[in-house]
Structures are given as structure tokens and as C-alpha cells.
Amino acid sequence: MGRMPRDDLQADAVHGPRLDLEPLRVEHAEEMAPLLDDPQLHTFIGGRPATLDEMRDRYARLVVGRSPDGRQQWLNWVLRRRVDGRAVGTVQATVEDEAAGRFAEVAWVVAGPYQGQGYAREAAECMVRWLRDRGPVVVRAHVHPDHPASQAVARAIGLTPTTVLVDGEVRWESA
Q: What architecture is the 14-173 domain classified under in CATH?
């Protein structure tokens, strides 16, 4: 079981070569709901696209920045291309302090029209660098075994697969 976080983290703006990572705001739902309204995005994670109202409600919970019990810090960003200002996806980190140290579970999603252009990799690299700049952290991701694109992103951010399976997904972890 996790412990209370030792430091409060707050998602700052992060800048990559082609992307800006904007801290999530409830207002982003207006832009993100139609962008992420694609059943194919749920092929590996299950579920269905959220409605605009569901996304607003979800974002309102996320922008609080921590779980109700205070054990997890929730850091979420919208990915925006610098070239034209368009949103292309999101990244997130759930940070928790455990007896063995600080862990950050990370995830990424890029909308269908923008996939295959390296945006997930760039955003994940920027987010992990931002996390590590704030202290030592073990980074984890859970990746479906049939999703080579997400496996490539996990490898690019220095993660290796473990033998741990969680809900049918392989846990990848940094050393």
C-alpha cells in the first residue's frame, strides 16, 4: 500500500521539440472529446469513448491533482503541436510513494489521425524527463502484449518488460 506523497507535484507546462504539454484543464474536454471519440483508441484498453459530459466530469476529478485518499498524485497533460496549435493527445503520470521509493505509472494516447508521427514517444520522453528532474522515480507503464507501437514508446523511455501481468497487460518498468 502506498504512503502519502513526500512532495507535492503539480503539472507544469513542458516543452518538447514539436509538442507543448499543457497541464490539463476542465475546459480541454471541449477540444478533446471529439478528438478522442474513436472506438479504435479503445481496442487495447477496453471501454468506449467518453461523451463530452463524461469527459468534463473526468477532467474535473483529475485536475484536483490527487486521489481522494491523498496517496496518489495525478499529473495530466494535453499534447499540442507547435506547428499549428492542434491538440493531438494526452499523457499522464500517477505518482505514489511506496516503501521502496517513488513510482510513477505513465500512460499516453494519441488520436488516430496523429499516430505514427512520433508524438507519443516525444510526449512520453518529455514527461519522464520532467518527472526525473524532480527526483528519483521508478517509471512504470502497462502495455498490451499485442500493441507494438506502445511497446516501442515504453522502450524509448527506458522501460523493459517484466513478468508481471495486470488486467492482461505487461508491466514495463525502469531500472
A: 3-Layer(aba) Sandwich (3.40)
- Rounded mean pLDDT, 20-29: 98
pTM of the model: 0.92
Residue 104 pairs in a beta bridge with: 95, 139
> Cell numbers 509538442 correspond to what residue?
19
How many other CB atoms are found less than 10 A from the CB of residue 125?
A: 18
Q: CA 65, CA 100: separation in Å to the nearest integer?
A: 23
Cα torsion 135, 19, 91, 29 to 10°: value is 130
Using alpha carbons, select from 38, 111, 26 the residue that is nearest to residue 63. 26
Q: What is the pLDDT of residues 42-69, one digit of tens each?
A: 777 778 889 999 999 999 999 999 999 9
Angle between helices 52-62 and 28-35 (to 10 degrees): 130
Domain borders along the chain are 14-173
pLDDT value of position 43: 78
Rounded distance, CA 1 to CA 100, Å?
Answer: 11
Residue 55 has a pLDDT of 95
